[in-house]
Amino acid sequence: MKWLRQLSIYYKINGIIISMLLLLSIIIGFIMMDTTTKLLDQQIEKRGAEMAAYVAALSSNDILLDDNYALFDRINQTKNNTEDVRYILITDSAGRILAHTFAGNLPKGLPIKLSLYPKDEDGYQTMKFNSNEGPIREVIVPIENGAIGYVRVGMSEKSTQQLLSLKLYEFFITTLLICLLAAMGSTYLAYLIIHPMRNLTKAAQQIQQGNFYVQTEIKTEDEVGRLAGVFNEMIESLKEKDFENNRLLKELRAKEELRTVLLNKLFTVQEDERKRISRELHDETSQSMASLLAYMKVLLSKLTDEKQRSLLLDARNVATNVLGGLRKMAVELRPPVLDDLGIVAAMDKYITNFSNQQDLIVTFSPPDQKLIINNQIALTLYRILQESLTNISKHACATSVNISLKQDASSITLRIDDNGLGIRSGAIEAARQKNRLGIYGMKERVELLGGNFTFHSISGQGTTITVIIPIRCLE
């Protein structure tokens, strides 16, 4: 029944109306044919009975006088004057034929022996039989209650059948014309219903494509017209909503652009501040600590008291450790190798130091070709590496980390995999609510460059971070 659901309303309306008309015509045709046949049969029987009674009334004396010629002449005149009469027979009381209207032999199938049965209310009896000339209805009327004889009139149904065929043909033509008129009427009715619906469908398709300035024409005030009016009101409402949405979208885009600018400035200021602090730690604080160590070395050479020398050596060791920590901090804030030798060398050095300090197996797969990127991209990749390894050392309990850096014709890809505990569901959102924004900070950095940051973690199966930055960002 799928094809029926997909069928147009036009064909459904026409099909229903014409089918109902055809069904009604067939039922009426059967009823009419049955009724007409019965009425014609009654008329034939009545006419046959009247003729038989007429012949019987005139033939009693002729039978008694054995005037067969008079009998023959009377029945032939009667037959010739009536088209439906096939034959007339006059028999005696024993059923022997005295006169008949057949020029030759009797038709095959005609019962010669007279079979009598109780008469009906009109005083005659009928029987129907098939002969070689077609169906014949015979009416039998007794002469003087059968004491003298019987008149048998055979009425042919040929004219009746012709009349029925003619009426059936006329009924068929009338039905065909009515169905044609009904098809025209149903077509017009379907047009009145479907045309506005097609307009509504076209308008809905225009709305689907974003055109909220379409209107449907209202020609009537019926249900379809009211539907079109409601549809136009809906379009106006959607137009207002679309205008409001466009306004809000413009404001959101403006705020997003402002946010992007602010984040860019924030990261730029942050990196500049790190660079300044790193330079101060390296150029001023570290130099001061180095000078302090030099003075302590001179002072140590002039002391003779062992206790004082021991205290000064301990202080010198503390100062040495502080100097080492300052230099490490300065390198982490802004590694000079990043500016001098590039991102690959800086990442390799950081990974080596991290692996030695955390006792982790960290493998690094650099790109085959020389990587040429600007400072912003290099800083982003380096900070993501730092943040990722820091998170792994604090939370993952991993034993190995795989890092790869690749470049193709359209993008640069950084991938970091560990075999740690992974992150359970909801842990990232809980960290965000506690203002632990490490992952979100990495994501923001990548998105500012038009890149894509993906984070995939399964509890107990490790974590994978993938960063893809389009090549256009290198220009």
If you had to describe this structure to a student in words, what would you say it looks like?
The chain is built from eleven helices and ten strands. It has helices at 2-6, 9-64, 68-81, 158-208, 223-302, 306-333, 336-340, 343-358, 375-396, 427-433, 438-448; strands at 85-92, 97-100, 125-131, 134-143, 149-156, 361-365, 400-407, 411-418, 452-457, 463-470. Among the domains are: 2-180, PAS domain (Beta-Lactamase), CATH 3.30.450; 340-474, Heat Shock Protein 90. The chain is an alpha+beta fold and 475 residues long.
State the CATH class of the domain at 2-180: Alpha Beta
Indicate the structural class. Answer: alpha+beta
Mean pLDDT score: 79
In oligomeric terms, what are we looking at? Answer: single chain
Task: Give unreliable regions as ranges.
Answer: none
Order of helices and strands: HHHEEEEEHHHHHEHEEHHEE
Helix content: 55-70%
- Cα distance spanning the termini: 61 Å
Q: Beta-sheet strand percentage?
A: 15-25%
Choose one word for the global shape.
rod-shaped
- Biggest sheet record: 5 strands, antiparallel
- The CATH superfamily of the domain at 2-180 is identified as PAS domain
The helix count comes to 11
Q: Which CATH architecture of the domain at 2-180 would you pick?
A: 2-Layer Sandwich
Count of β-strands: 10
Instruction: Describe the strand arrangement of the main beta sheet, using strand numbers.
Output: 2-1-5-4-3
Global Rg: 58 Å
CATH fold-level label of the domain at 2-180: Beta-Lactamase
Domain Histidine kinase: 280-473
Enzyme class: transferase
Keywords: 4Fe-4S, ATP-binding, Cell membrane, Cytoplasm, Iron, Iron-sulfur, Kinase, Membrane, Metal-binding, Nucleotide-binding, Phosphoprotein, Transferase, Transmembrane, Transmembrane helix, Two-component regulatory system
Membrane topology: Multi-pass membrane protein
